[in-house]
Design a protein that fits this description.
about 260 residues; alpha/beta; seven-stranded mixed beta sheet; two-stranded antiparallel sheet; UCP029730; N-formylglutamate amidohydrolase; N-FG_amidohydro
Length: about 260
């Protein structure tokens, strides 16, 4: 791992009360893994990373002067947005692509990827959120992702969506603010359900009662610099409005739809 840092922290004003996260920011692999037996084209697909999210996160962090944490490894190596006991943590097949470097996989290799990539990323997230909350007020945590415009040949009509479990505090005003723009269709827990035991929002926000929301933007809308700039301009005032709400800087634990908290 010495030649590969599994996360990047973008510094910002920790007193701002906001932290951005990008679990699937990059499509990189440590040199020792080669390409996991996949063609180069696989690393330009959504199976490797969330297209457009690295650029969008960097742009918003700079515009807002807030800290952000980005994962630097491809989800094909190990998925940082999955719990450690999730069977999809290291995928053998992803959207029809067989991943030779992940099957078969030894228990030792599984643990190595957890120890050297997954856990360091989450420790960086934990440290950053703690630093932003050092004043005693909860930081607002916003996680950025992107989704494909089609799934198995079926078009997805949403331009963006907000995913969540059961804590509505940031989600409901976020949805309302996004929907004030008549030119976009906004999904509520579409195209995925935001309740996933052990994922990043569960681990760092639901269990601690930290206000949060997960934003999904359709990949074709942020696939180039023009799209990233347009969405950053759209989101900046929304993020500022959310962050100005004092109720989004209080700790309050909500029960998860996935079941009781453990650990």
């Amino acid at each position: 791992m010495q030649d590969f840092i599994p996360f990047e922290i973008i510094e910002g004003d920790y007193d701002s009360g906001m932290v951005l996260l990008a679990d699937h920011a990059m499509n990189r692999l440590p040199a020792a893994y080669g390409s996991l037996g996949l063609p180069e084209s696989a690393f330009h697909r959504h199976i490797a990373f969330d297209i457009g999210i690295e650029g969008l996160t960097r742009r918003l962090a700079a515009m807002l002067n807030v800290p952000a944490v980005l994962s630097c490894f491809s989800r094909l190596l190990i998925d940082p947005n999955r719990g450690e006991d999730d069977p999809t943590l290291i995928m053998k097949i992803s959207d029809g692509a067989i991943i030779p470097g992940n099957h078969p996989i030894t228990e030792a290799e599984w643990d190595f990827r957890l120890d050297n990539y997954h856990r360091p990323y989450h420790r960086a997230v934990e440290r950053t959120i703690a630093k932003a909350g050092a004043s005693g007020h909860a930081p607002l945590v916003l996680s950025l992702h992107s989704f494909t415009p089609f799934w198995k040949g079926t078009p997805r009509p949403w331009h963006a969506a907000v995913l969540w479990d059961s804590d509505p505090r940031a989600v409901l005003p976020f949805l309302e603010l996004l929907r004030q723009s008549a030119d976009i269709e906004v999904g509520d827990n579409e195209p995925y359900d935001g309740a996933l035991k052990g994922d990043t929002m569960y681990r760092h926000c639901m269990m601690s009662g930290t206000p949060h929301a997960l934003l999904e933007v359709r990949q074709d809308l942020i696939g180039d610099e023009a799209g990233i700039s347009a969405w950053a301009e759209r989101l900046e005032p929304i993020f500022k409005t959310l962050n100005a709400d004092p109720t989004l800087h209080e700790y309050k634990i909500f029960p998860s739809r996935t079941g009781p908290y453990t650990g």
